[in-house]
Hints:
Blueprint lengths: L7 E2 L3 E2 L1 H7 L4 H14 L2 E4 L5 H7 L7 E6 L8 E2 L2 E2 L1 E2 L10 E4 L5 H6 L10 E3 L23 E10 L2 E8 L10 E8 L5 E9 L5 E5 H8 L4 E10 L10 E6 L5 E5 L8 E6 L5 E8 L12 E4 L6 E2 L9 E5 H4 L8 E5 L8 E6 L5 E4 L1 E2 L8 H10 L3 E7 L5 E8 L7 E9 L5 E11 L6 E2 L10 E7 L12 E8 L5 E7 L1 E2 L22 E6 L6 E7 L12 E6 L5 E7 L6 E5 L6 H7 L4 E6 L5 E7 L8 E2 L1 E2 L1
Amino acid sequence: MGRTIETFNNxxxxxxxxxxxxxxxxxxxxxxxxxxxEKAGPIALYDPLxxxxxxxxxxxxxxxxxxxxxxxxxxxxxxxxAGLTAKPIDCFKDTNFGALFxxxxxxxxxxNQISHLISENYPVHSLDEMRLEGSWLTNTRQYLxxxxxxxxxxxxxxxxxxxxxxxxxxxxxxxxxKSVTLNFLLFDQSGSIIADWSExxxxxxxxxxxxxxYVRRKFGLPEFIGQLFIHVVGVKGHDIVKxxxxxxxxxxxxxxxxxxxxxxxxxxxxxxxxxxxxENVTLWLQNSHPSTIPTGEIGINxxxxxxxxxxxxxxxxxxxxxxxxxxxxPEAEWPQQFEISAGKxxxxxxxxxxxxxxxxxxxxxxVERVDIDPHPGxxxxxxxxGKGFILPAPILPRELWITTVLPTPMARSQENLPIAMVxxxxxxxxxxxxxxxxxxxxxxxxxxxxxxxxxxxxxxxELMYDFSxxxxxxxxxxxxxxxxxxxxxxxxxxxxxxxxxxxxxxxKDEPQxxxxxxxxxxxxxFLRLGEMGMETICHLIFPASTPWHKNSETLISLISSCGxxxxxxKIHIPCSGSRFFKISEYFSQAxxxxxxxxxxxxxxxxxxxxxxxxxxxxxxxxxxxxxxxGF
Length: 631
């Protein structure tokens, strides 16, 4: 079940061919191409790059009469392609077929190689017939360049008083990009395109904001729920589209946020919390492809339970379906959690919690890995890497919030998780420790980390492996962190995975770097500013797997929407310490006013890798909280 095409490889990165054939702007061209092949049959299928099966997964060719298949690599001779035994291409005779279909882009070179087998004016079709328009391309010389497919999806809604605001910045300018163009396609819940537009951002570091209220007004749209497709042209350095996503309400006291969707569909996701009594957990299933998701393709099970409930409902191309997991699995209750059999049909989905004693809020699930197993090298590396893999998260000020942590198994091979948790005061002093022990896959164990703080107002926690109780670990340690306002019951949650932090020694690709090979020993984080009375909050953590610099040298810069620095301060965070602050504590109202609408913060440190969380706080006590993104 599900798709077999490889969308992402942790060694090679993302698969540009996948993005090229599933791109929403070429769906019509692909349909036209298949129609031409239907009329031209019988067809000789030439698959020199092994692309046919992937193409067929998204664009059904069952109506095409393929008479024979051919390959270039002799190791592929005899394999089945379109149900036909593949032959070497030099056996091709153009008199036996109505046309030749070369399953490749930039086909001229491949066509020239076999020109001696093809008579003049012989009909040849290829994937070049479904190319994007030239204005959508960054690299016109190599169609499948990753630069041509800097794309992503975002949950987008303007309905029932609920609005969505996407915020990012032209971070590609840090790598030499001069100007970027963002092409947008807005899909409604049925998968129909209801808006199509482009915006150009010429300034280095220019703020990029897409507000659903503005979009609805600009295009005269009815209320909508759906997804926004984003394609960036002119990128350099990064083919990943990152953003923060805020959801607000004009009718309720709602402030919630999540972040970019991770543009590569996965076989499985996990970290979906079960509802508390009175709550409803809605999983938003948003089809990322130009073909229907059939019934029985999407499944959900309680973590550690082999019984999967399969969804008996189709999802149209680019359509959105809200799924109430409580109705699907009514016996499950927080702190149980679910995993999702997704079949590579959609990018990382969002979930929304409503009802009960707390406010409506939104968060995301995470990729559940199928390509990793417990690795003994991680335990061995601990002799050199100190704490090794660390998962840091804030413990928010105890006078306002309760902080709860739920470890989440996040690889299919994980049967047990040997985990410990250490609490730290802002000055880096250890203030508490909790040993989870060897957690089974189906555990439902939470801990209130607030209890670690003793005399401190706030601090942070670090989850790490406890090799004294188990050594079958894989480095993909995740957890869900839930924050609840003591006075208003407003709630926010976020989840993330572990990394090795701040050691010059490397293990595999850790400490992770955004743009170069490991180790990543510097910080550049984006922090959007709240508007309309919203206070921006930030929690910066200085985790270190081994002893590092005594203090950070952290610059916090206030940037205008056109990318100009308005003000800057320097702060110092102790190693293994943290700093929780409101932006109004560091910048005056005059500076913030001078920065103007769309202003943002850049947090930069060239001496260490910090980890950050951000949120918005309203005067009524509603708030949002999620981890920040860097570039």
